[in-house]
Amino acid sequence: MKQWKKTAGVTTAGIAVLAGLTGCATASASGPQAGSVSVVGFSVLQTANKQVIADFQKTPAGKGVSFTQSYGASGDQARAVASGLHADEVHLSLEPDVQKLVDAGVVGKDWATGPHQGVLTQSVVVLVVRKGNPKHIHGWDDLVRPGVQVVTPNPASSGSAKWNILAAYGSQIAQGRSPAQATEYLKKLIGNTVAMPGSGHDATTAFEGGTGDVLLSYEDEAIEARQAGADFDYVVPDQTLLIQNTGALTRNASSASRKFLAFQLSRQGQTDYAKQGFRPLDPGIDVSVPGANNPQDPFPQPRTLLSIDKNFGGWDNANTKFFDDTHGLVTKLLADAGKS
Amino acid sequence: MALGASMIWFSLLVLIPLAAVVVAAASGGWSGFWSVVTSSQTGAAITLTVLEALAVTAVNVVMGTALAWVLVRDRFWGRRLLDLVIDVPFALPTIVAGLVLLALYGPTSSLGVDVANTRWAVFLALAFVTLPFVVRTTQPVLEALERDAEEAAASLGASRLTTFRRVILPSLVPAITAGAALSFARGISEYGSLVLLSGNLPNRTEVASVRVLSYIEGGDQASAASVAVILLLVALAVIVLLDLLQRRVVRRGR
Question: Of B107, B217, B220, which has the smallest distance from its Cβ to A211's Cβ?
Answer without folding.
Answer: B107
